[in-house]
Structures are given as C-alpha cells and as structure tokens.
Amino acid sequence: MMSMKKTVxxxxxxxxxxxxxxxxxxxxxxxxxxxxxxxxxxPTDPLAATEVAGVLPVANWNNIDNHNGGNGExxxxxxxxESAPLVNSTGGATPVTLHFAGNDSWNNDAPPTVTTPxxxxxxxxxxxxxxxxxxxxxxxxxxxxxxxxxxxxxxNGDNVRMDLSxxxxxxxxxxxxxxxxxxxxSFIEAKSTNPAGPYEVGNYSIFKSLPTYGGSxxxxxxxxxxxxxxxxxxxxxxxxxxxxVGIPPAPSLVSSPSRGRYLVGDTPxxxxxxxxxxxxxxxxxxxxxxxxxxxxxxTLPALTxxxxxxRFFLRGNNVSGTANTATAVITIGKLVLGSSVKxxxxxxxxxxxxxxxxxxxxxxxxxxxxxxxxxxxxxNYATRASTIFIAPTTGNYVFFVNSDxxxxxxxxxxxxxxxxxxxASELVWNPxxxxxxxxxxxxxxxxxxxxxxxTLGTISMVAGxxxxxxxxxxxxxxxxxxxxxxxLATGADPVxxxxxxxxxxxxxxxxxxxxxxxxxxxxxxQTAQENRRAIFTTVTKASQVGGDIVPPTFYLWQSKASGxxxxxxxxxxxxxxxxxPLLSVANNGTIYRLVASVxxxxxxxxxxxxxxxxxxxxxxxxGSGSVKNGAGAIEIGLGFDEELDAVTAAAAGNYQISKGTxxxxxxxxxxxxxxxxxxxTTGIAAGDSVTVTVTGVKDLKGNTMxxxxxxxxxxxxxxRGRVGGTDYIDVLGEAADLWPTDxxxxxxxxxxxxxxGGGSADWGTYxxxxxxxxxxxxxxxxxxRVEHQDPTSQWxxxxxxxxxxxxxxxxxANIEGGYVMSRNIQLRVNPTTQWNGxxxxxxxxxxxxxxxxxxxxxxxxxxxxxxxxxxMRLQRVGQMFTGYRxxxxxxxxxxxxxxxxxDVDGTGFDGTMPTNVxxxxxxxxxxxxxxxxxxxxxxxHVRFHSYGDFGVIPATPAINSVTLAGGNVTITxxxxxxxxxxxxxxxxxxxxxxxTGTFTGPVTSAxxxxxxxx
Length: 1014
Prior knowledge:
By secondary structure, this protein is mostly beta strands. The chain folds into seven domains: 225 residues, Galactose-binding lectin (Jelly Rolls, Sandwich), CATH 2.60.120; 81 residues, Immunoglobulin-like, CATH 2.60.40.10; 177 residues, Jelly Rolls (Sandwich); 99 residues, Immunoglobulin-like (Sandwich), CATH 2.60.40; 93 residues, Immunoglobulin-like (Sandwich); 231 residues, Jelly Rolls (Sandwich); 56 residues. Helices cover 3% and strands 43% of the residues. It has six helices and 76 strands. Strands 3-4-5-8-14-10-11-12 form an eight-stranded mixed β-sheet, with no helix packed on it. Strand 71 and strand 72 form a beta hairpin. The longest helix has 7 residues. The two termini are 41 Å apart.
C-alpha cells in the first residue's frame, strides 16, 4: 500500500563553547558532501569560502561533490572516490585528502530553499543503502597525532538507524538520524555507545582523541541498520587535539567470513573484519597466502570443481600482534530441477529499471515453492519473479496477478523469456491473494486488469509444454506482496485468500541443491473429547549442506480417515502446529501427518492418530479473572473448557457469588478457545476473595453443569473502555448508537483476555476501538500473544497501544468540530481473512500519531501473524517506542521504532508523550473497510493471551518426554502443573501431580492419562 509520509524534524538547542571553537579553528578541516538535489542531478548548493558553519563554527568548508565530481574529486564511480587536497579553516593548503565510499546520494528533505550555512552544509548526503552494509570516509596524509572528528548526518526519511564507528573500532555510536535540517533547526548530539540500546536521536556525534598510530589516516564507517531507504552523512570536521601516541594495541577479531555452497563458475565475495590501528590484512587459501588479497573483502575467481572444500581465512597484523578470522569452507553444489519460483530482489530499484535493463544485478536471490512472494518485507524495491509453467492439460488458460504496489505479469509462447507477452497487470495495489473483484485500492473503476482474459483473452496451451513466466513488481511504502495463479477458462475463478496454484508439478526451475529439513520433535497421538479441539505440534530444523543459509521451511498438514489409502491436504494448515476444528465422533481414528519442505527437499512426519471420545459430560470452568468497567465496578470473568449453550450461559440465575451482588451476565461466545462469561458486580473490591457457584449451564450437547465452584482473589489489572464514538452504521443501515465494547479476563493472573468491539475506523485523525488499559509511569516493556481474531474487514486491527489520553466516546463529529485525538502508538496484527472469505492484510503494523493528529507508519512492520502464536512486544525507553514481533515469545524481530519529540523549527508541535500513559490491549475491526458489512453485525472478538511484562513470559504447557526404566515412568514437563486422571470418559477428575518439572511413579496395569495445565 502506498502511504503518506510525514516529515518529522527533530531539534534541540545546542550550547557551543565559542572559546574552544576559536582556539581550534586554525587546525580544523571541514567538509560538506553535496549529494544531489531533488530537482535535478546536480549537487546541493556549495558553501562560499567566507561562510561559517558547523558545531565548530569555521569558514573555508571543502565542498565534496560526491555524486558527480566537480570540485577536484576523482570518482571511481558515483559516490566512491578521492578528493583533491583539502584546505583548513584559514584557507591554507594541507596535504590531507579524503577517500569516500557510498552507493547513493540525495538531499535530506529540507524545504526547496534553505539559506543558512548550517542548513546548506547539512543538506547534501553521501548515502549507504542495503541494510547491514557500510559506507566510509577516510582522512589521509594526516600528521601523526590525536584528532577529534565531528560527524554530521541527516536523512531523507524518518527513524533511520545507523551504527557510526571509527576505523579502529574503538567506539561506536548508535544513532537515529534526524529527518531534514531547516534554517531554524539546531544541532543535536547523539552520544549513545551502548549496543544494547536505545538508539539516540541526533544529527552529529564526536569521536574524541582518535590516534593515527603512525598510519597517517583516520576512517569513519557508517553502517545502515534500518528505516527509510538508507542512511546519510552530511559532512565532517577534524581537528588536531593532542600529540602522537605510541604503539597501537594488537588487532582484534570482529567478524569472520561465512562458509557457502556455490556453483562452478560463481565468484563469491568473502568478508571479514579485524579491528585495530595500522593493521595489514592478508587472505589465505588452504593456508597459502593469496597474492594481492589485502583488503577486508576478497572476491574469488570463478570457482571450479577443484575448489570443493577449499578453506579461506583473513589475517590481520600490526607491530603489536596478529589476529585471524575463523576459516570459511567453500562447498561446490550443482543445479537441479525443482518445483520453484526464482525471486530476484532489487533494493532501491523500480519496475522501469528492470524493464530498461534486464541485466541488472539483484541485491539478493531466493527460491520459493510457489508463485506467492513474501508479504510485507521491505520498502522501496523491485522484484522479478520467474518460473517455467508446465501446462497440466491442453486447453485455454486464464492467469491472475496480485500485488502491492503495481506489477506486470508476462507469459511466453515457449520456455524462453525472449517470447514473453504481457498478459495482466495490477495498476495500483491490492491485498495479498485478492485475485478477483480487483478493486484497485488506489481508487478508480473495477477494470480487472489483473486477469489475462480481460486484458488479452484466454491463452491456448498444450499439455506438458513448458512456458516461461515472469512478474515484474515495484514497492513504494507500506504493505507489499506479489503473487500469481491460474485456472482453465472453463473452471471456477480462484477464491480470494486461496494459495497460488502455481506450485508443485506445474512449475519448474533450476535451483542449487543441498537444502534439507528434519523433524526434531515429531507429532504425538492425541485424545480429545467431542465438541473440543485437538492440537498437533512439531519442531523442525532447516539447513544447507556446506552453507550458512537457512532455507525457509514450508508446511502442509494432511489427514486421512482410518483405513483410507491416501492423505488429503488440509486447507490453510500451513504452520508447524495444527489445531483441529471442533471435533465430532466421526473424526475418531483420523490419521494426521505434516509434510515439511524446503526448496528441493521434502520429508514427512510420523503418522499419528486422533481418538475422539463422545461428549456425555458437563462443561468445566477452565479459569477466572477480573477487569474494571469505566465506572470502576469489578467484573468477574469465567472461562470454560467447551462451547456453551448461549441461553443458559447468559442466564443470571445460573450464577451466585459469595460476596457482593451480580447485576448482569454477558456471554462471550468466542472469548476463549470455547467461550466465557462476564459477571458485572457491585459490592466487591480489589483484594477480595470471591467464590463463584455455577449451576445449570449447558454445553452444545445439552450436558448440564452440576453446582461447580471457582474461587479467585479479585485483582483487576485492566479497565475497559471505548476509544472513539458511534460512527459505525450496521448492515441494515441503522446507526449503532452503542456498539458493544467489552473485555473479559479468564485467567487467575489476569493475563488472558478477550475484547469485543465494533467501530468503523482506526486511521487518519480518528479511531473507534475497544481498549482494556492500565496506567503506567515511565518506561515499560510489555508482551502479548494474539490467539484468534474474528474475520471482519481486511484492515481489522488488534494489539497493544499506549495513549497520552483516553479519548473515550469521542465521535467523528467531535473531530470535525476541532477535537484532536491524543498522541498514541499502536503495535498490531491484521487478520488472515475477511468475514466473506476474501484475503485480509495478514501482517504486523506499527503506527503512531503525533500531536498533528495524523496516523503514520512508525516502521515497516511486516511478517505474517502465526495465529494462535502472534506474539508482540511494545517497549518504551524515554520518548522512544519500539515494536517487535515473534512466534514463540522468545525470539523477536523489530518491526519499527518511533521517538516523540517537540518540534522547535516552527513547522508544528509533534509533542512528547507524558510520563503517565494508558497502556493495554485494543481491538478495532474497522467495519468501515467491509464494504457490504456481510455477516458482521455490531461486534466481533479477539483473544489475547499472556499479556504482561517482558521477561515474565508465560511458558506454554508441554509434556517434553516420557521414559520407562526399572518399572517406573518418568515424565518431564514445563509451563504449569502436571495433572493425571484415570479416565477420559464421563465427568473427568484431574489430580495434581506436582509442578517441579519432573514426575516419577510406578507403572501399573491401569490406564492413566496426564496433562499440563497452566
């Protein structure tokens, strides 16, 4: 999705020591990279010799035209070169020159006209693109001494993270570059040197007393980490501050080259880093020196079969010692035919670039098992996806393409790219797998250009013949995806949300061999009761023989009835674990297995059986908790172990409490795995011990609960409320004056919740959300797992939020009347499907609103939530908020960061977040994005589990091993209390066996069943 970009400008007053500046000025050399302007390919405005700029305010700046040359620079290529000898701040000649290395240039998004010397000095950029890679600049021919180096930086994008280090690796600054520098901006020094974070916002940093150690050079490296489309350096100042120092320390190892699996003819580049001053570098092959290989990287000549097993390492030495990298081994593989699609990724490129030059070298290449590209991976890139299509039958075909942003799909008349023909296009953007009703989300009529029978007609193909296919795709900002599929002209259209049919035996491509995947944990047989679910889990490990690349693993669960001859794919079951639908006795004896595959290799799990026991017994209470409502009254929540009859579950007469009074009962059908009930109460206070008695509640089979008690200590953590007003209009056209806003807690430590909500919007200047919140002062680090989100609109949103104010019951009319909704930041997930079965956005998002009341992306988001394990983590450190995603609550991927700052440059007030903020869980189904409101009504549900502080991650209940020895059984388990029962038929009585993690008991002839309960 193309998104609006907000220009955020940071500024803080800086105090300079004028006396120091005047003392140092005669020894200062200053340089300004000119980059390019946004209007043409020329450099930004140079500084005149008389103009004074910088934190050290001096004249005679050296203007470096890093993109085109022109001020005496010698360029090996754009943004790589050497300057003429530089002048100092008096205008005097020096022998010092500058070597610089980047791969892009631009300006920092300042207004078209900046007039002050500081703003013009900061305007041009030497850039580095491609995350994880570095640019550099080096002062040469320096006298042997110590120097302070001032490095200036800004970027043409928000929230750009950069690691800024000196060439000897004595210090690294972890910074977030400011976006733009105007005539009223000030210099902000970033000082953070802690690799654990947080990154600090600024536009300059100072390296103090860097020595040359007799080497006559000082280097500064700038490594691009994340944000926008690269990082940028605006300029630098260097000033001598001390005498030469003696012998440098011995070199130290920073990083080693990676081993790799390659083809004969490949020319891989090895890279290693050895830090230190005056270090001589040398590469070795099979312990023999490689003549001329004396830099940190070494590009091998074309590999031959004899290079299989060759060993390479980098050595660095100076007068104080030697350091070697680890050895990298080269393995020679071969190309094999497989069912694959080749994906070429081009950072910073456009579709037009690929069309204009088919020989462009991609940033990276990967192979996928179908024509479904990864979703929400990056911004500002182009993709070429290609494969050979093998027509499964003779007939007329229709091809479909789907993408965000635009794409073109080509099909050749044969197996060669030379004869490809444009057959379909996505002109604007659409959600992933939105194959039909292609409504061009950028606006415009429904022209269906994304299907070949509309743009070209049906395509005649012959069974078994091979046809080259290719898609060219461009991504700007926001969400991103690319996919293609097909059908016979006489067949039904694909259903939105369906996986691509361009997979398996109908596609073919050459791929590098060596990928493998294995099961480290096999699925186990499961026993479950009717009207409940069973869960099968596995763990796999993927690897590459002879290489460090971990190939992506793809999953597909299959099942077959007892005694059946073959397995059938289970639609949508593409995770490492599988949760069944509600079971019936007809499912008894079903056999399950998981097919795990990497490109070129697949393996099957153990085949395991499901036992289903008829439901002849009443529901049980699975847990309890509490929340407050907006008036401060306490509401007790009860969870159940199976689905309930709605009438008896909502009957107030079926519940009694030992203290206080029940004022109303609300049944939440989707609140836990099976359902929950909220009891609104009066006369209860936090800390009270309350026993709830439930009688007469039935399950779907009519089994009735006898008198059952649940005792809890009432300790409500969250308060429920409604952010926004009543804008939603339901499917009948009636105003939903009070769309349900609800939250129920169903866990004894108040970490498991369901939110119920309606509402039309969560974007721009307005949101309608259900919110369950607490007040937190200062820094926090919270986690939550989203187990389920009802399919509503494609942009439905559920997650964690921090708000400066609650904005309870504020309507769209209030906003139009001038009310401004508060600053907030949201980390959230979208559902996999919409209510009508169409595909939804199915991604993580990280969004902020500053005080100008406009929602903006705070990071790239990305990834697909793996319900029921869609983990999120929201962290606050001062004014910086960072979001993470994961699928296990242990390993985290950052999805973005945003720092709230007051704007002092006169263009507006962004606003800091107060010390006390409202933090908690929210849900906004965005019914306004469900055009027909099909099947929606007034409310929907989302289930949250494990809400709490990071570092206190609730373990998943699990039995880890069962062993027999000496007439005893030993069970190891984790995540809760081990329980046992002697029968799974009739009313089940579970007995606690302990919570130490290990149980040992004698083996008897009687059956005994075990579980772990959290």
